[in-house]
Amino acid sequence: MLTVTRSALEKKYSLGERDFKKLNLRGLDLSGINLFQANLEGTDLEGCNLQGAHLEEANLNYTNLS
After folding, report:
1. Measured by CB atoms within 10 angstroms of the end CB, which terminus of the chain is less buried, N or C?
2. What is the CATH number of the domain that holds 25?
């Protein structure tokens, strides 16, 4: 599982990438992030702050949201 920083995730998203499956984002502050229609399948979001995150239409299948 590849570990990615918030800034790297935001940069990739701004460049049009939407496939972020099976990433390790554990413990990141993702509050207010825009991941509309992102594929987060199998991604580890354990302990993330997702307050105000824009996750509409995102694929959260098999995502760890503990």
Report:
1. C
2. 2.160.20.80
Q: How many domains does the chain have?
A: 1
Report residue 10: phi and psi, to 5°: -65, -40
The rounded distance, in Å, linking the Cα atoms of 32 and 17 is 18
**Over the stretch 3-41, which tens digit does the pLDDT of each residue have?**
999 999 999 999 999 999 999 999 999 999 999 999 999
Domain that residue 59 falls in: 1-66
φ/ψ of 36, rounded to 5, equals: -55, 125
- The strand ranges marked E within 1-66 are 2-3, 23-24
Runs of H (alpha helix) within 1-65: 6-14
CB 27 within 8 Å of CB 8: no
